[in-house]
């Protein structure tokens, strides 16, 4: 698994040239948008997916960058999280038997433009609830998310979802409506970290729904993420899910990634 990030507003000076490089699939999506930042975000998403696909496939490994926590002592796990926390980085969360640790690769607009290679513009189709997948590369999975001017893409060898969100207002009503009782208790349990905890769970819910391809409306009330122990448990329709979870942070924005184990 690998996460790629780019800022949409940095391609503003040559957005027309960048648009010309897009696939017809991405052009159609972009053409529906009339707000300038939304158009730049869509263009950036197309170029970033091309970059990520090329980079990931040329990395020379079919394995995800991850650690099997069944072989990692609890003390080591806690030490790793403490080290990341002291550095201002996102925590790694165990989910059942494993957890992921990856870095974010930030790509400049010049790199996106210069590295573009049409050979990696694989045809995309959308499944029932609109989840985009590569039509012929069934061995390769991707997911895209964006907020403000930031676009993120994740690549993996198994179904995966990603979400980025934060640095915005939210209401207690959202917690009471969309979070389970245990989730709400955890969010309300630390007033100083209430926003962090809210977006921690919110992005996980979004990423889980995108991994499944069900759509957030079909999953948000049926999935919960429990933080009662060092492990984060993902429960869907009352059953514990065998998934891998990672959380990263980028200038106050939470990034959650969830992948099939």
Automatic annotation (TrEMBL):
<dbReference type="GO" id="GO:0019878">
    <property type="term" value="P:lysine biosynthetic process via aminoadipic acid"/>
</dbReference>
<dbReference type="InterPro" id="IPR008278">
    <property type="entry name" value="4-PPantetheinyl_Trfase_dom"/>
</dbReference>
<dbReference type="GO" id="GO:0005829">
    <property type="term" value="C:cytosol"/>
</dbReference>
<dbReference type="GO" id="GO:0000287">
    <property type="term" value="F:magnesium ion binding"/>
</dbReference>
<keyword id="KW-0808">Transferase</keyword>
<dbReference type="InterPro" id="IPR050559">
    <property type="entry name" value="P-Pant_transferase_sf"/>
</dbReference>
<dbReference type="GO" id="GO:0008897">
    <property type="term" value="F:holo-[acyl-carrier-protein] synthase activity"/>
</dbReference>
<comment type="similarity">
    <text>Belongs to the P-Pant transferase superfamily. Gsp/Sfp/HetI/AcpT family.</text>
</comment>
<feature type="domain" description="4'-phosphopantetheinyl transferase">
    <location>
        <begin position="159"/>
        <end position="246"/>
    </location>
</feature>
<dbReference type="InterPro" id="IPR037143">
    <property type="entry name" value="4-PPantetheinyl_Trfase_dom_sf"/>
</dbReference>
<protein>
    <submittedName>
        <fullName>4'-phosphopantetheinyl transferase superfamily protein</fullName>
    </submittedName>
</protein>
<dbReference type="Pfam" id="PF01648">
    <property type="entry name" value="ACPS"/>
</dbReference>
């Amino acid at each position: 698994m690998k996460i790629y990030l780019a800022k949409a507003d940095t391609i503003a000076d040559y957005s027309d040239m960048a648009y010309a490089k897009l696939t017809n699939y991405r052009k159609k999506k972009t053409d529906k948008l009339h707000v300038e930042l939304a158009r730049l975000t869509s263009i950036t998403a197309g170029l970033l997916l091309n970059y990520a696909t090329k980079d990931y496939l040329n990395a020379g490994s079919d394995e995800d960058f991850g650690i099997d926590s069944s072989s990692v002592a609890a003390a080591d796990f806690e030490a790793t999280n403490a080290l990341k926390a002291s550095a201002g980085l996102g925590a790694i969360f165990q989910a059942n038997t494993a957890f992921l640790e990856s870095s974010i690769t930030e790509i400049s607009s010049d790199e996106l433009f210069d590295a573009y290679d049409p050979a990696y513009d694989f045809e995309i189709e959308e499944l029932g609830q609109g989840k985009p997948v590569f039509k012929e590369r069934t061995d390769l999975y991707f997911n895209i998310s964006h907020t403000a001017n930031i676009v993120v893409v994740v690549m993996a060898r198994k179904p995966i979802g990603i979400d980025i969100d934060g640095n915005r207002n939210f209401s207690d009503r959202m917690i009471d409506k969309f979070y389970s009782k245990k989730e709400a208790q955890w969010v309300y349990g630390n007033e100083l970290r209430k926003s962090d905890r809210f977006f921690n769970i919110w992005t996980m819910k979004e990423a889980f729904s995108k991994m499944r391809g069900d759509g957030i409306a079909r999953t948000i009330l049926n999935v919960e993420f429990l933080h009662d122990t060092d492990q984060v448990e993902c429960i869907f329709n009352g059953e514990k899910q065998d998934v891998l979870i990672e959380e990263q942070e980028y200038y106050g924005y939470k990034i959650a990634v969830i992948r099939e184990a």
